[in-house]
Design goal:
Structural class: mainly alpha
Low-confidence stretches: 1-46, 654-658
Largest sheet: 2 strands, antiparallel
Shape: globular
Helix content: 55-70%
Strand content: under 5%
Number of strands: 4
Strand order of the largest sheet: 1-2
Distance between the termini: 44 Å
Number of helices: 18
Mean pLDDT: 84
Radius of gyration: 27 Å
């Protein structure tokens, strides 16, 4: 017989007499648990599906504070204090000693990369293959009850998950990342490949980072939490995913630790992204001259932007998921599509369509098996350890700074985005979730990076072409250099002829697009705005003084980027409040405001005290501390399998769907 859980401080859960109502364990007494591994040993104790009903009460810690207005605050004091203490502890360390914090945490990050590259790399395709198999084998099972309907339309659903998951990053890296990957890595080594091959591999590596690999951790947590909450009536928290392992003991300190850690990772991820993102917004504002371009002390600007975003995020999260968050998500996604369309029609459109088709095939060929397993084992060897003597190896730092960083960062964000996706995926089938969260965003990423990254690559190549023409025919590589930047070149708007050469040395088939810029690695956020300002169309307009589309596109980009930051912040506040309140989906608005202001406060403190170094230190910390979550997410494969089998055995698989 299992030991009475009451004797261990865990209240027993009595079996519900109604046969169709949620039954958490088949036996009335708690399952035996191995103290060392936490494995459920009682084979008769299984999770059973539930019928629609009001949420059950679970024996979790909860503090209730009554307010004079008649409302009340409800939260788990341990989860909240654990998250706040750990978050502010590491944040204060980064604020007080930003230099030492960055050195220490960068060292931890480097050691994590050194010893666990293989784990981060192999863990992701395991998730990817499991998700595809899950959609095939259990695709008809709903994250909810059999006859219930989804809460959101497909358009609203996609816009919200997209805004929370990757919206900001597509602006930040849309042009710059393919340019970064033109060198330093195995796939771009000029000793083996032409420039055409290098640029195609640059797009491939970018899309590997932003395709299936990015969404795998998100969808794992989304499906696991969604099944546990909406099919089995458990709280919408990360701890509920592990009920098949820990049973009733998940409501004690083990579950509190899991949810508390999830709070830390969620707030840290939102804060660092909020802080780092304002740097790009400020770059755009300086380009528009709304902020003095010569100004170097920008702390006040950063703080103002953070609190403007936080204020709007607070308004959004107070109005709730179905109003503020939904509206802003759809608005941000629509504006992003508008920018993408305008750039497409003003660029060399058939080149972009060719590149889209070519890149899609390249992605399907290389991003399923080869690239996801690439650890760059030889390229990461240092001199004296067997490094290549031909000089053609990749840089030792590249795999850690890019691929492993991305795999770790997606895991660090997985609690936030995964739980948010679970919330908006209620009553959808697993196949629908996989299509909406896995296939559709990957397809959109291929379009986005093929167009925006393709534009950046073409213009950088044209800049190099003009530099070479200046050298070959005018003995001056800066002959076409723009006055605005040493990295940019003015494109001649007419064909160029020189004495002694019958044919033109330059033929302009894209009049109006100038200047074009090479990539400045010291200011990567500027790459996006360089593209926006390239659509200048000089000499056009009634008086020949049309200022071009640069200001309009840059202003629209900044506004859209701010919308995406707001949706990330308000979604993060909603998720943290859900975790801190034991999975409750309805909270007092003061709790949401508290977490929204906490995010803004941490980001402000880090920027004021240590600038980008302090933010980078917190970012490194969240990635290092996310290592255990990579292991937990893989364990979720088994938990999901147990829940799906249980639903199928009890006839809850929706055989008529899809």
């Amino acid at each position: 017989m299992a030991e009475d859980p009451q004797s261990q401080g865990v209240p027993a859960v009595v079996k519900d007499p109604a046969p169709e109502v949620a039954v958490l364990v088949e036996e009335e007494e708690a399952p035996k648990v191995d103290a060392e591994v936490g494995k459920t040993l009682d084979d008769n104790s299984v999770v059973k599906p539930c019928a629609p009903k009001e949420k059950r009460d679970f024996p979790m810690r909860e503090t209730v504070i009554s307010l004079g207005s008649g409302g009340e605050l409800r939260f788990n004091w341990f989860v909240s204090l654990f998250g706040l203490a750990f978050l502010w502890g590491i944040s204060i360390y980064c604020m007080v000693e930003p230099d030492n914090a960055k050195v220490t945490l960068d060292k931890w990050f480097a050691e994590t990369i050194q010893y666990f590259t293989w784990f981060y790399i192999v863990g992701n395709p395991i998730m990817t293959f499991f998700i595809f198999w899950l959609a095939y084998r259990y695709g008809n099972i709903k994250l909810g009850h059999k006859d219930a309907e989804p809460e959101f339309s497909d358009m609203s659903y996609f816009a919200m998950l997209f805004s929370a998951g990757v919206g900001v990053g597509l602006f930040f890296y849309g042009v710059s990342e393919p340019l970064w990957h033109q060198n330093s890595n195995y796939f771009s080594d000029a000793g083996y490949r032409s420039q055409d091959e290098i640029d195609q591999w640059a797009l491939e590596i970018t899309l590997y980072h932003w395709g299936f690999a990015g969404w795998s951790p998100y969808i794992m947590i989304a499906i696991c939490c969604g099944l546990a909450s909406y099919a089995f009536d458990l709280p919408l928290t990360v701890r509920s995913c592990f009920y098949p392992i820990f049973g009733e003991y998940i409501w004690g300190w083990i579950g509190d630790a899991i949810d508390g850690w999830s709070v830390v990772m969620t707030v840290a991820g939102v804060c660092t992204s909020l802080g780092l993102g304002v740097i790009q917004i400020t770059t755009g504002l300086q380009r528009l001259e709304w902020v003095d371009p010569t100004k170097t002390e920008l702390t006040g600007v950063y703080v103002a932007i953070i609190w403007i975003v936080t204020a709007f995020a607070t308004i959004s999260v107070v109005t709730g998921l179905k109003m503020g968050i939904k509206f802003l998500s759809v608005l941000g996604f629509s504006l992003g599509c508008l920018i993408l369309f305008l750039c497409f029609v003003m660029e060399k459109s058939y080149y972009l369509m060719n590149l889209l088709v070519q890149t899609t095939g390249f992605y399907m060929q290389w991003s399923i098996f080869q690239v996801p397993f690439w650890t760059d084992s030889f390229g990461s060897l240092n001199p004296g350890e067997g490094r290549s003597v031909d000089g053609n190896s990749s840089e030792t730092w590249w795999i850690g700074a890019w691929t492993v960083f991305y795999m770790a960062w997606w895991v660090a964000w997985a609690c936030f985005v995964g739980l948010f996706i679970a919330r908006i995926s209620k009553n959808r089938t697993i196949r629908s979730v996989v299509f909406g969260v896995f296939l559709a965003p990957t397809a959109y990423a291929i379009i986005w990076f093929s167009f925006m990254g393709g534009i950046g690559l073409r213009q950088a190549r044209q800049a190099l072409e003009l530099e070479k023409l200046g050298t070959d025919f005018f003995q001056d590589p800066a002959h076409y250099q723009s006055d605005s930047s040493e990295f940019c070149y003015d494109v001649p708007q007419e064909d160029v002829y020189v004495d002694g050469v019958e044919d033109p040395i330059f033929v302009n088939t894209l009049p109006g697009i100038t200047p074009v810029c090479k990539f400045d690695t010291t200011s990567s956020p500027a790459a996006w705005f360089n593209v926006m300002y390239s659509y200048s169309y000089p000499g056009t307009g009634p008086d020949g003084n049309f200022g071009g589309f640069g200001q309009f596109l840059s202003g629209l980009s900044i506004f859209t980027l701010a919308i995406y930051f707001i949706t990330s912040s308000d979604s993060g506040s909603l998720v943290v409040d859900t975790l801190a309140s034991n999975g409750a989906e309805e909270h007092h608005w003061l709790q949401r405001v508290f977490w929204a202001f906490t995010e803004g406060g941490v980001a402000t403190g880090l920027l004021v005290a240590g600038g980008s170094d302090a933010l980078g230190a917190l970012q490194a910390a969240s990635i290092v501390f996310g290592l255990p979550f990579n292991f937990l997410i893989i364990i979720m494969c088994w938990c999901i399998l147990v829940m799906c089998r249980t639903l199928e055995e009890h006839g809850q698989a929706n055989e008529n769907m899809d």
